[in-house]
Amino acid sequence: MSEKPISIWREPAVRNYLFTGASALLVVMLAHMVRDAAIGGLLAVLVAVPGLVGRWSASPILFLLVSIFPILDPQGMLLIAPEYMGRGRDPVIPGLNTQTKNAFDITDLFLAAGMLCYLIAQYRLLSLMNRSFPPDRVPFHRPKADDESPKRPAKLVREDEIPFALALSSAFVLGGQIVWLLIWTFTGDDGNRSMFIGQTGAFVVVVWGLSVGLLISATVFGYLSMRNASHAEADMFLRDGVWQETYREQQRVHRWRIWNRARKGQ
Amino acid sequence: MLTGRGWSFLILSIMLLVCGILLLPQTAYFLGILGVTLLGWFFFEWMQFVIRVRIALPQLVVRRQICIENRTVAMVWAGRTFIVRIDIDAPHKIALPYLVLEDLIPAESKKHDGRNEHAIDLRPGDELTFEYQLECPAPGVLRFEGQRLQLADLQGFFYFRTFLRAPVEIPVLPPLIDADGLHRTDKRLNILPPPGVHRLRGPGSGSELLDLRDYRPGDPPKMIAWKPSARKDKLIVKEFETEVPVRCTLFIDTSHAVRLGPPGKNSLSELITIAAAVAQAAAANRDLVGLTMFDESGTQVIRPARGSRHLIDLLHRLAHAASLPAAGRSTNMLPLARLGLSLANEVYPDLMRNGVNKLPWRMFWRPLLDSARGWRVLLLMAMPLLTFWSVYRGLLATLAFETAPSRKWMPPMFLLYVILPFLIGLFFWGLYGIRGYLDTTAISRRKRLAAVVAQTLQLPFDAVARMQIDDEAMMTHLQQFLAKHHVPYPIALYDANGQYQFRSGEKVKILAAALANAVGRGRDNELYVLFADLLELDEELEPLMNAVRMAKGRHHQVLLVCPWLQHMPAPEKYKKRDASFIPRTEDELADYLREEEIERYLKAYEHVRHEFGRVGVTVLRVNQGDSVRLILDRMERLRNVGRVRR
Question: What is this model's ipTM?
Fold first, then answer.
């Protein structure tokens, strides 16, 4: 863990992630420009750059938050004329309503891919340069060797990591688009074919999908955990079962024993 | 498993998705797409991580080897460095791209070279090896607990810590000494007996002539001294001295009083280092060495013998004795619990998790009836039954009549007065029970720790419940738990009544019995070396003095080696303070008390010296010059006793 401080310009792995993140930001910027949201895009990029260069750990979260704004209001009209907010169902300010009504847009794909690539690169850079996992509590029973932040050593970065991450992000963006299309196909405005209609329907479908996914995963992994339990864990499980069933009675008995001991001691 | 970074990302992704779905589906499809994409990626990373944790990690094989000069060994020597080699095999088909493995170093050892912690990228079928160098300065036993594993994903969203327990105990034998260097080099006699033997003035088959006597039928013809026979005109035979080996028996005090202090730096460790040096030097001289270890409860005896196997056995026993932990009745559980919790969290994270060590909410409820005063509340709640008693009923009716605002309020008021004691009792019942929920942290920690201790020590099934409420049981088992893992823990020297806990007259009786037993088994002049802490045991020394007198009466040699506290000055270097000094400040008072303690200690030592000096026993301190050389010199004197007496 006592790796030498990584120089951002010297480590090839760090440099590669840095260039990947910067390229992704460029794509994000261009996509925002295509969506007539150059200022918002620039703002998001400006928030992201300190994260890449200066290891600012809040950068990716702020980037996501700042990116929402140009998506909702590409020309920043709400900032310029906030008094128009909430007037009727159709905003009168031109620009707010310029988004496509179509669920598929190639610009969206590029923007999502760029954002995901940036996030992957940024988080991996933070693992390499800041901290890869939370530090443990200092043990009382032995001296702690050092309290250095646990970083992932740059030598562990594989050559195929970045290409794999790029392929993965493309796949997930495509998958996300497909899932979104499916959701809106089954629950969209013209979705009389489905019992779940509109926003509520989409929400229910998403929540249901996530819940079922989590339930199945938790069951499978819980089973695997029990199956791979060590002898000590199995013993502990049984002991804990006995304790849960009988601890009140046992404690009552032991209170009497303590009382008896105290009486004898007196 | 989720880190702060992971939580923030997950919450933001869910927020984006919810925004995409509920708030602006018409104007911002992109938010939904982005939300689904980010959540999908996050879910994929989580799946990957969980598969690594649940499937790949349990299959990881880590082996440890202790090597000296490229040979694997089962024991090491104090003061010498050795290599710890860690081999890691990944038999599974799942890669672990970021794993931090730390081999826990025993507390008693010192790291010299290399690193015991490595961040690795483990691919399927990989075999990795790393080494580091350790040294253990004092004899004892080194306990290697196992390896701490920290697994994280590449983004830092997930983190899992576990421990591969593979406890191994390696004996650290006392340091090897150059036995020849410890013997005196000046020549005292012209004819020295062969090493390992000394002459005894009794008829035997030695080489030195003892006497001449008349021939008795049955004497071998080769013993006939022909010249004296011719002179005296009758058969005279020669008698030779007997030759017997020198025997040395070491009596080592392993009582709790000498075990106090950090391992390797306590009195027992010093005694054992000297005893081991004596044993090695004597064995190198082909003398017979025996060992008797005693404490408050009994003795362990190894009969005097010679040979390398015997010596190694002896050193093993000494090493194990050096690692014995001190135990006493603790008076404060907090430091023990903190140490125990820290150890359990580090070495037993799998047994501390909620899946196998549960904390049901009902456990925090404090049952009122289990308390000594619970019956009062029960009595209060049973008061409505008194309504069947006409006097009480009349009293309540009168009260209801006087307090009701109108006639129609009388029945409800009467009913309220009837059930009011029950309601008050119920309130107190709830108030008492709910107090347990105010400090759930302490209760949960104690339960989890008790469960781990019970499992580790294989205690009966009721031990967890017992340790939850019985402080004494908890402290006793915590001491055992910490001692098992070689973690030093604080011990109260004085009990609740202010008495020194480790003053043991019993061990003196046991030592006296062991010495008398050894004298009874002794064949000729032997050397008995007592390594014992006998200071401040003035009244209990009598049985031992009797045994020593018996040994001296049979011409055996006895030596006493006393342990010496490190912070105590040597008697010859100590300058007595001014008797008229009166402390006036806090610092002066502290100095005064320390001086008092030193004087009391030195006085006790002088007393022991005086008592043993009266029966001709030399008393040494462990830090007094070269005590090993002195003991060997005494053995040399035994060897030459025949020559000296002539």
Answer: 0.83
